[in-house]
Amino acid sequence: MDKGERILYPCYFNGSLSREEGRRVPRSLGAKGPNAGDIERALKHLGILSQIEEHHHPAHWSRHEGRVVATWTGKKEALIKKVARAMEVKR
C-alpha cells in the first residue's frame, strides 16, 4: 500500500454495528447496510480516485463485503467522515 492510499471497509459506515464491531462513524452518520459500491460512489462524488477490491475486513472474514482503496494523503479519519457525509444510502 502506498502512503497516499487509504483502505475503507463497509463496516466503518454501518450504523447498526457497534464501535467494537468496526463502526468508525457516529451512528447519526452511519448507513443502513452499506457496501463497497456505496463507498466508491461517494468517493467519486467527492472527486477522490478509488478502486474496489475483493478483500474483506479481518474481523468480518465470512461476510466478503469487499473494500475500497482510495487515493488520499490526509488523515484516514477525515476521509471516513467525508465519505460518510457523502454516502447516498438509506440512514
Radius of gyration: 12 Å
The number of helices is: 2
- Portion in beta strands: 5-15%
Mean pLDDT across the residues is 91
Notes on the structure:
The protein has two helices and three strands; from the N terminus they run βαββα. By secondary structure, the protein is an alpha+beta fold. The protein has a three-stranded antiparallel β-sheet, with helices on one face. The model has no long low-confidence stretch (mean pLDDT about 90).
Task: Provide a short characterization of the protein structure.
With 91 residues, the chain is α+β, with helices and mostly antiparallel strands. The chain has helices at 36-46, 76-86, and strands spanning 5-8, 50-53, 67-71. The protein contains 2 helices and 3 strands.
Q: Topology, please?
A:
Elements: E1 5-8, H1 36-46, E2 50-53, E3 67-71, H2 76-86
Antiparallel strand pairs: 1-3, 2-3
Defining key terms:
91 residues; alpha+beta; 3-stranded antiparallel β-sheet; 14% strand; globular
